[in-house]
Amino acid sequence: MLYNQDPMAPTLLVNFAKSFGGATVRIMDTVRGLASCRPYGVAVLTDSPLHNLLTEEGLTSYPLPYLRGDPRLAFSIARLIRQHGFTVIDTHNPQSALWGMIGLKLAGRGHLITTVHSSRDSTVSSAKTFLYDNVLRINKLAGSHFIAVSESVNSYLLDLGIEQKKVTVIPNGIRLMPGSSDSPRHSFRNSVGWSRHHKVIVIVGRLEAIKGHRFFLDALPTILLKNPQVRCLIAGTGRLENKLKAQVKRLNLEGFVHFAGFRNDINTLLDESDIFCMPSLSEGLPFALLEACARHLPALCTNVGGVGEFMVDGYSATLVEPGNPQSLAKGLFKLLEDEPRATAMAKQAYLMVQKNYSLDKVLLRTFETYDKIY
After folding, report:
1. What is the pTM of this model?
2. Does residue 204 sit in the same domain as residue 316?
């Protein structure tokens, strides 16, 4: 889709994340759209996942060879603004919000947007939470406009004293592809020794505390007592990988749980699974959940953040209390024991994504927001 062929504000996106996450997906989608309608660039850390993805697709990036806490990032952003005439600066994580704002001020030109992907993280230290809250407050004082990916993130920004007129809520979106339910279902299963008779529960996300994997693993022995055919597929990497693997061993779950690592073929894994599980402690509006709905997968999610705005318990998903293995087990029993109801909820979730979470709509609203502040 071509969004607007008139000359538009040259746009610099800034993301200094070291790992792959939902912000990476949103930036890649945004940049693909920008490439069809206006000058753009992306400031990234050298050899970060985002840098590598942009390079693979031939999209414009500016890799910076510094650590995330290095003030030279701000001077580099200022130089990029001056050299390339960027007038809209869109930042996408805490360090990016800080250095992007300072870089814009050093350059003496441009308009700032701060895109916020999540609210407070209960697994992060109070010191880090304090710092991030205040980075956002400083961005407010610097005149930034904010994009929130869900109403829960919008509420978080309002709690920080940011005026509603300075916040635009633009949820994540995906492009639906045909043939989701007809893909081959056995190649990956066969590679790990699972058959079509097994019930595969898939979890997609970074292996970090906020994603709640440990609570699901604690629930799994209870689930297996009643449903020994269940298997769990965990896709993603992160700092907790060794701890989670040790937990699997301690609970005697080896053979029942497979760690797939970082994957570029998530849709294939979803198509080979029977249930999608998201046991997170906090979320904005996760791409993984949207993708699972687009693949017609019944979903079990904790009722946190943007998930509760998007899914309706008992209608489009089963929602449970976060951080509670017993609640997760009970929710999974419902999906495993009533397959027609699970299938009906998956259909409703697909229709909801189809109607409300179109990627084209997200990009159109994003670019309208860029032009509004320009």
Report:
1. 0.83
2. yes
